[in-house]
Design goal:
By secondary structure, the chain is mainly β. It has one helix spanning 138-142, and strands at residues 26-30, 34-39, 51-58, 66-67, 73-79, 82-88, 93-99, 104-107, 113-117, 121-128, 136-137. 18% of the residues are buried.
Length: 162
């Protein structure tokens, strides 16, 4: 007989809640087909130190460059193909990985990265080594920088400057 859990995360016998349906926690949706579902210790209190995201992407719907200041990220490709781009902060080298089903890419904490689907659809399982990972998007940071701080002498192309 399946367990039935209450809101407090325990069943009637006092056992911890060890089950959660990812489809019950939609984090975001981009367009009609790219969707992110997430489970953390908020939904499963016994799950400490990790969070899992079910990421569904469609072609031409690339993820925005971002980083996680408090978590490393492991991307496991379930179906489809993607290019995962990662900026190495120590060498300032752009690393790009063509990733297929059954393959993984690890992104260390604090490294800029983004995922570009190259198949019509891609399905990834993203695992963080923090139960409450924070995401900092490039657009959130760039809007805070005043235009005079982004002068051509800093090496930015003219089209990048407002």
């Amino acid at each position: 007989m399946p367990y039935s859990m209450n809101i407090g995360g325990k069943d009637q016998s006092g056992a911890p809640n060890l089950f959660f349906d990812l489809k019950n926690n939609k984090l975001s949706q981009k367009g009609s087909k790219s969707t992110v579902f997430k489970v953390t210790s908020t939904q499963l209190p016994a799950m400490q130190g990790i969070a899992v995201t079910d990421l569904l992407l469609t072609h031409n719907n690339k993820g925005e460059p971002h980083w996680h200041p408090n978590a490393g990220e492991l991307d496991y490709i379930i179906s489809g193909e993607v290019v995962t781009s990662v900026v190495d902060p120590y060498t300032l080298q752009l690393l790009q990985y063509h990733v297929k089903p059954g393959q993984v890419v690890f992104i260390p904490m604090g490294w800029w990265h983004w995922i570009t689907p190259i198949s019509e659809k891609a399905h990834l399982l993203v695992i963080y080594n923090n139960d409450n990972p924070k995401t900092v998007k490039s657009s959130d940071v760039l809007q805070l920088i005043p235009p005079d701080a982004l002068k051509p002498e800093h090496g930015l192309p003219r089209y990048f400057l407002w």
